[in-house]
Amino acid sequence: MRCPYCDHAESRVTDSREAPDGIKRRRECGRCGLRFTTAERVQTTSLLVVKRDGRREEFNREKVRAGILHACAKRPVSVGAIDGMVDQVEHGLSTLGRAEVPGAVIGQLVMEGLKTLDHVAYVRYASVYRNFTDLESFAKEVEALQREPESNPVAALQAQMSLPIASGETEENPPKKTKKSKK
Prior knowledge:
elongated; 6 helices; alpha+beta; 3-stranded mixed beta sheet
């Protein structure tokens, strides 16, 4: 494995652990001594995406991630939440059990995820995906979003931060403080 810092070809594995999406390995470069992390993922059968113009191209996870990152730019959305959403989209596509999937299906999965994650990012993504050409298109989408039932901000924050929040704990009802014992 090449070092991302000095491009040296040899590194040694210092730690390996299983992760939800594969195996993470911590490595140390043989030349510069800097450490970096690599990830191994199970390679599934290739999935072809059928574009609007009929072209077919192989599904690219990084392309989906880049689109979501772009929509979430300067928004309070963690990279972990974005990566989790990309995992959900990829899992959703793999459960379809099809060799070819229309690009519209991927766009819908991303929009559904963004709608629960961040409304501004959702409108940004929808504006490109649905090719909004005027202000009325934006206004209609925002109105439709406002008509939907209010989402749970605590659950959205929990999903975004990947932190467990005790039931009944909210901003208005914070967790009880306990005294620390001195030793």
